[in-house]
Amino acid sequence: MRINKYLALKKISTRRGADELVKEKKVFINGKLALLGSKVNEADRVEVKGAEQKEYKYFAYNKPIGIETDSPREDLFPLGRLDKASHGLLILTNDGRITDQLLNPKYFHEKEYVVKTLNKLRSSFKKNMGKGVAIEGVKGKAPYMTKKCKVKILNDFSFRIILTEGKKHQIRRMCSALFQEVADLKRERIMNIKLGNLKPGALREIKGEELATFLKSISF
Asked: Which Gene3D superfamilies does the UniProt record give (predicted)?
């Protein structure tokens, strides 16, 4: 495989970062200077010299209602989005290595939300929501059938939902297709990371066993 892919798989760098290391003549294969596009296999000895070891950080952030998805710190970026009208958990990090594992639709990671509606939930809502909903496409795209999900009715005007995918405005579009209007949407969990009692706008560092479980679940 190419050297940039190899270094990314070994969690040494992103592919783009690996290319920069090669350009800076910091990567050696079997004692010889690597070039862009050099091939490598498991039997080869790969060395990265003089590369700074970046300290990766991970935080849980409670995004308030009324602001766009962004990070309150310049050194961190959000993994995924919440629309302006929604609030709750975002994961912030400086670790670009995990972006693909979290956001690529080929991976399945649970995200849990509590949703309140303006109108009373229909008796068939749980069944229809849980089995998947045909939602309208966005920007000229064809309609899409959402994957099966877990739904728990909390009362006549609220429910809890666990998704394993993340289409744009998905829950709002699913509700709209079932003639329900969302009044409030709050994300409470991403995989094993929980919002808990984190106040709006506040950050909490993810570390220890919580971080180890999170990284293990995305094969890091």
From this structure: Alpha-L RNA-binding motif, Pseudouridine synthase I, catalytic domain, N-terminal subdomain, RNA-binding S4 domain
Which amino acid makes up residue 213?
T
Q: What value does the CA radius of gyration of the chain take, rounded to a whole number of Å?
A: 21
Q: Same CATH fold, 110-190 and 54-107+196-220?
A: yes
User: Can you read off the two tokens belonging to residue 137?
Assistant: 């496409």
83 is catalytic: yes
Minimum mean pLDDT range among 28-37, 48-57, 115-124, 203-212: 48-57
90-99 residue pLDDT tens: 999 988 878 8
54-107+196-220: CATH topology is: Alpha-Beta Plaits (3.30.70)
Q: CA 186 → CA 133, 135, 183, 189, distances in Å?
A: 20, 21, 10, 9
Class of domain 3-48: alpha beta
Domain segments of the chain: what residues? 3-48, 54-107+196-220, 110-190
Catalytic residue among 44, 70, 75, 83: 83
- b (16+ CB within 10 A) / e for 149-170: bebeeeeebebebebeeebebb
Tens-place pLDDT, residues 38-97: 999 878 888 888 665 678 899 999 999 999 888 899 889 999 899 999 999 999 998 887
- Asked whether the beta carbons of 102 and 79 are under 8 A apart, the reply is yes
Provide the CATH number for the domain formed by 110-190 in this structure: 3.30.70.1560
Strand pairing report for 32-33 and 58-63: unpaired
